[in-house]
Amino acid sequence: SAIFNFQSLLTVILLLICTCAYIRSLAPSILDKNKTGLLGIFWKCARIGERKSPYVAVCCVVMAFSILFVQ
């Protein structure tokens, strides 16, 4: 159902990016061995989370504010 609701889709993408970046910080070998293919999506999400971390953090705060207070 997150596919049909844009806000839910953004929430799932943000959670995926944050989770992959956290897993890569704890155990980098898990995501580094799968840089290509279908599992490469998780490596790419981890790279986005690492390189764009201030922007991802701002997006998480804005999303949390909108979920808690706007809806």
TrEMBL record:
What membrane topology term does the record carry? Answer: Single-pass type I membrane protein
Report the transmembrane regions from the record: 6-23, 53-70
Q: Which PANTHER family does the UniProt entry name for this protein?
A: PROTEIN KISH-A
- Provide the protein's localization: Golgi apparatus membrane
* Alphabetized InterPro entries for the sequence: KISH_domain (IPR051523), Ksh1 (IPR009653)
What gene is it encoded by?
A: Tmem167a
What broad class describes the main subcellular location of this protein? Golgi
Q: Name one GO cellular component term.
A: Golgi membrane
Task: Write out the similarity annotation.
Answer: Belongs to the KISH family.
The molecule here is called Protein kish
This chain's function reads: Involved in the early part of the secretory pathway.
- Species of the source: Nothoprocta pentlandii
